[in-house]
Amino acid sequence: MQLSTKHLLGIKDLSSEDISLILTTASQFKEVLQRPVKKVPSLRDITIVNLFYENSTRTRFSFELAEKRLSADAINFSSSASSVSKGETLLDTVNNILSMKVDMVVMRHSASGAPHFLAKHIPAAIVNAGDGINEHPTQALLDAFSIQEKIGSLEGKKVLLIGDIMHSRVALSNIYLLKKMGAEVMVAGPPTLIPTYLEQALQVKVEYNLKKALQWCDVANVLRIQLERQNQVLFSSLREYNLAYGVTKKLLDSLQKEIVIMHPGPINRGVEIDSDVADSSQSIILQQVENGVAVRMAVLYLLAGKKAE
Amino acid sequence: MKTILDKRQLHLTILRLAHQLLENHQNLDEVVFIGLQPRGVQISKRIVDTVRSLCLGQNIQYGILDITFYRDDVRKELHIANTTDIPFSIEGKAVILIDDVLYTGRTIRAALDALQDFGRPKKIELCVLVDRRFNRELPIQPDYCGKSIDTAYSQKVKVEWEREEVILY
Description:
The complex is a heterodimer.
Chain A: H1 16-32, E1 47-52, H2 58-69, E2 73-78, H3 90-98, E3 104-109, H4 114-121, E4 125-131, H5 137-151, E5 158-162, H6 169-180, E6 184-188, H7 198-202, E7 205-207, H8 210-216, E8 219-222, H9 238-245, H10 249-253, E9 260-262, H11 275-278, H12 285-307
Parallel strand pairs in A: 1-2, 1-3, 3-4, 5-6, 5-8, 6-7, 8-9
Helix pairs in contact in A: 1-5, 1-12, 2-12, 5-6, 5-12
Chain B: E1 2-5, H1 7-24, E2 31-36, H2 40-54, E3 61-65, E4 94-102, H3 106-116, E5 123-132, E6 144-149, E7 157-160, E8 165-168
Parallel strand pairs in B: 2-3, 2-4, 4-5, 5-6
Antiparallel strand pairs in B: 1-8, 7-8
């Protein structure tokens, strides 16, 4: 058994078998991370470059740790401290790095489709660590892993994505993944932040009333407002956004059930989610981060093995 | 196809291995049993159950180890990992590694590496049901052996747990 794809460009390209395989392998790696020595020699002879053309804390650290715990050699690249500032193109940069015998590329880029472009031109396996407003596949995988760990199989579970659906690659990857694994998906947020075609195109429910949406779901994944990607005014103020769509303790207490709260980070406390919710026992935000390493180990391991074909 | 051990012989062999293990280890508090995934799980369960029935009331520590991530052939072939479950410390303990068939020795090599990541055992011993003694690719020998056989590389040895037989194909 192995993955059906050579790269991990997006959840869109994966089958449900691929997703199950990654999640099962991730649970084995999670056990490895509980051992006294949290490291295995699996990718001893593999070199991986982390190409981050966009800022990141969690994802970059998480990939780097995953690589180190698999014994791969990891090199880091950030566009600000490189020849990109001298005008080198993406393809030139990557080809130069690959000529130094690098086997895999983990890439984050602000342009949607950048890793897909790269996949057409270079032989190395590519893992998309977030491309513009398109996909962030490893985040969706770790979200799915965390949901499974907390409440069991995704099949039939009701998952709500709240907030900036329009600019969120986390939302798109989550929608693809949850649908493929048989979960029900609803999105909630201000109409200006939800693409109009979403309901028909991806068969997700759309709800503009946050309380109704929360009442419906088992799990609520609260997304960050992506101010850096919004080039026009889509809501009047963060304060107003918080009043209408912020997840507050009061709102959760008014529901007749306890739902699981998730957030891909970084959190804007007091905007999309209040501190007492983010830090409550309902929240699995830090477990998501912990699981991120195991999930990324699984992805890298399975792709490195695939390469041998 | 040839039967190496039939049901009765298999039963006797497991009983003998359990007795040999007890003979060499007086203090079972200092011993941990670890079966290797995937095919060493059944045989290790049987041996540990037999040891338990021979020393009722004693606490026997038993875990299972998957060595997939320690293999030396990731680039050649992708293996899918199984569960590892070692819910105790192996630090300073005598570890009895149990597998069904000892063949090239590469799995045991990987298992020795893997065990180091769980702590520093006092010693590690190897117990196998079948030893294909002339097919070794590494200098590894069993300490306890159910049955030693001579085989060609082209042959296969399989423990059929439904019929409780060991067959050479």
